[in-house]
Write a structure and sequence with these properties.
By secondary structure, this protein is mainly alpha-helical. It has four helices and no strands. The longest helix has 27 residues. The two termini are about 20 Å apart.
Length: about 130
Amino acid sequence: MGEVIRSFRDLRIYQRAFRLQQEIFRVTQGFPREERYALSDQMRRASRSIGANLAEAWARRRYEAHFLSKLCDCDGEQAEVQHWLDTAQACDYLSPDQHALLTEECREIGRMLGTMMANPSKFCPK
């Protein structure tokens, strides 16, 4: 408690989202070449958008409605990642353990986003 947040990079949720995107990048490197555009790129794009939208939300926090809008975009991207994780597992590109770990990380990011959306004044300057 009492952490000083100087930039979006200091947010624990951003740090988790960044780690998630890097792990998604790592696991998708093992996907078949024919999935390069159909699945790998979709998973990478969606996972990278979580952190990118968090950074944008942080920059827009002067306006609570804009802040909330970007957080909603983040939540949509993490849900999309969950969809792609389900698809990858259904195609046997992810083990059940990989799927469970990555899906749980998405869910935790979603919970953290929910907390931020429920308490935007904690993040938005007066």
